[in-house]
Amino acid sequence: MLQLRDAQSAPVAIRREDYQAPAFWIDTVDLCFDLDPAKTRVLNKMVLRRNPDVPAQALRLDGEELNLARVLVNGQGASFRIEGGQLVLENLPAAEEGPFALEIFTTCAPAKNTKLMGLYVSNGSFFTQCEAEGFRRITYFLDRPDVMASYTVTLRADKTAYPVLLSNGNLVEHGPLQGEGNENRHYAKWVDPHKKPSYLFALVAGKLVAREQRIRSRLGGDHLLQVYVRPGDLDKTEHAMQSLMASVAWDEARFGLPLDLERFMIVATSDFNMGAMENKGLNIFNTKYVLANQATATDTDFANIESVVGHEYFHNWTGNRVTCRDWFQLSLKEGLTVFRDQEFSQDLCAEPSARAVKRIEDVRVLRTAQFPEDAGPMAHPVRPDSYVEINNFYTVTVYEKGAEVVRMMQTLVGRDGFAAGMKLYFERHDGQAVTCDDFAQAIADANPGSELARLLPQFKRWYSQAGTPRVHAAGQWDAGAGRYTLTLTQSCAPTPGQALKEPFVIPVALGLLGADGQELQTQQPALFVMTEAQHQIVFEGLAAEPVPSLLRGFSAPVILDIDYSDAQLLTLLAHDSDPFNRWEAGQRLALRRALKAIGDDGFADGQTVLDAAFIDAMREVLRHPRLDAAFKELVLTLPSETYLAEQLDVVDPQRIHAVREAMRAQLAEALLEDWQWAYEEHRDNGAYQPDPRSSGRRALAGLALAQLCLAARTSGDTVWPGKAYQRFKDAGNMTDRFNALSALVASAHELAAPALQRFHALFKDEALVLDKWFALQAGSPDRNGNVLPAVKQLMKHADFNLRNPNRARSVIFSYCNANPGGFHRADAAGYVFWADRVIELDAINPQVAARLARALDRWKKLAEPYRTAAREALARVAAKADLSNDVREVVTRALD
């Protein structure tokens, strides 16, 4: 199943059905690194043995961009050849001869590694990133997740330049190196007590400082927690440490999973392709998900740090102790661990309303990112069947939809039943590389009387079938009999390679409301499990026609089609006991009005879109005395342009942008006094705390200020822009400061320019804050085509660096991926810019380039002239002869 890396050959598709166990096992790995940016020497001593269950064959070790100096077998020189990027050795000891020693000496050039995969240098320090296939850029190896070995690692380096030397596991030796030529050099030896696949290997070396905390687990074990950062950033690590401590405590309390190492380390670097990486005991993080204080980080940053720290720590068990047999099983660890970090963040919320807000935020990500992926050229099951480049399958389908599949399991067996299933999973598979089937079987076997156990074969279609199922709901009321019949029908559209879909298992949480908003008591259970293409649910003994509340809590990752009347939606918005469906009713009301205006060929800028009933409903939500501020902010935020586009068969991005902007402006003007009240009522929160209540109040105040500045743009009023500028200057935290700056930029007020200049001057030495500054401008509403020229100027800014993924994302991705109104230009200039950047980035960092390439996944839905221009841009990229496999797979699938 291993992909041959031959630059002269066409990309090879890897298929799940072709999986074969490795011909060799690696028992131990002893690595010695002499670290040098220009030429790092790696001595790799391994003990291997043949797999008796696989026919005898040559040993093929993966390698990329390595200089090979020596190969020894049992201490003797060995014949070998390089074939398709692999080191091939034949005539090795037979199985009956037992284990044998293999020694490989190579060199690599970390300073030239712009791909940020394998061993690389960032700001004078060494870092590694080995998932998915980066270890082969460090040494020749069986670089696949089902080969698990015990690692001993010795790091040797200049003590002045690299005083900190870290690797996985426990530090067993360290000190100065002896002998001639080793003056001012030192070493550190690390031993990992747990076997692991190569993708979990890590090393870090550099000038770093650490925040430390000693803790004692529930079982009485003592552990050292460390967060390493560059000197000068230590004051921004308290929240990350608190999040790590909370994660350790939560996993032990909720699932009985203790920390299994003497120490657990987090290291932050600014050059990183991903958010973070769960290397065993040595998590390497993007600084974005570690560094925070109230002056430099927003409430969203604080929440993201808590979530990502939790996610990577939870991988210690769900991903590390039990790992993937092959990369097709990626959701085994990622979907499960996303579910765990979502549950962690919800469990930290003291109030039910805060839990509901977190759930809504997670579903918004699913709908705006994963649902479009399910409907596009890169659609794939949660467990893919094939790939050309595995890096392209670290997707929202594998992660977020995978988490929803796990959530449905918990729904079907209950919270306690799920915990029992997790316990059985670890009892069976600790220390193994397994499959999604193994996980699902453990949850079912621990709950033999559950719906999951009964329906397991059918439930696993969630792993094998791509696409988002649609559930159509229709109600029929028989007044004479007092009977309400609800008919549910499921379907799923064809996706690439899958024309026909069999019925899914879909848990539908439901309830009925009376016309007065009161919850109705019925004899039907609150959870109905769909298994057939169509079901009928009959409710007897009702006095009047009810309002159905379906898919409560978003109980399944499906699209719900139901023809609600405005009156029914207003009832749900005002009264539903389920917060998710209350929010959903508001979104459906806004969506209905937006789609009507988008379909109106006579629509003109400034045209009225919102009716009095909708505006009054929004006013009631905004003024509601008992609703949580964070929940109000979610309800008052209109559906995004991306989400609106997904509801249409043919997409005119400029029409969508104009309609949504008209809706925002109308809502701003119609609720002017209410926004003023909301801002004044919520802007003061005392000493800064990033807790859900305070964060929600700041979010609502920020939305109100943005709306007030938008209303001022139409009226010519200068009071509220002036107040926003003053708020920007006086704010005691980054959330309030950035909300004020955003309000000025989004309303295109003349005060935006001096505010942006002042912001840059204040934070010119704070890289993560400058990322916000760049992103705000690249993602600002487009007026008369002004954004693209601004983006091009930003790329010429002294602080822009294309080689830094965070900075590239802050400008290029904010424009191409997150600003449809600015990107989709009638003159195709946005697409030309996109193609230029994809090609430019591909030569530096194919992973980042491939992510950018996906901005045109949905080009076939575009109206003309956008559709033809987008295809031409894709074809131009595809025609590039030396394109990476990463980008080629994306653009080829888009064009097919």
UniProtKB/TrEMBL annotation:
Gene Ontology terms for molecular function: aminopeptidase activity
Enzyme class: hydrolase
Residue ranges of domain Peptidase M1 alanyl aminopeptidase C-terminal in the record: 566-895
Domain Peptidase M1 membrane alanine aminopeptidase intervals: 240-453
Reactions it catalyzes: Release of an N-terminal amino acid, Xaa-|-Yaa- from a peptide, amide or arylamide. Xaa is preferably Ala, but may be most amino acids including Pro (slow action). When a terminal hydrophobic residue is followed by a prolyl residue, the two may be released as an intact Xaa-Pro dipeptide
Entry keyword set: Aminopeptidase, Hydrolase, Metal-binding, Metalloprotease, Protease, Zinc
Cofactors that this protein relies on: Zn(2+)
InterPro entries: Aminopeptidase_N-like_N (IPR045357), Aminopeptidase_N-like_N_sf (IPR042097), PepN_Ig-like_sf (IPR038438), Peptidase_M1 (IPR001930), Peptidase_M1_dom (IPR014782), Peptidase_M1_pepN (IPR012779), Peptidase_M1_pepN_C (IPR024601), Peptidase_M1_pepN_C_sf (IPR037144)
Listed EC numbers: 3.4.11.2
Family statement drawn from the similarity comment of this UniProt entry: Belongs to the peptidase M1 family.
Name this protein carries in UniProt: Aminopeptidase N
Recorded name of the encoding gene: pepN
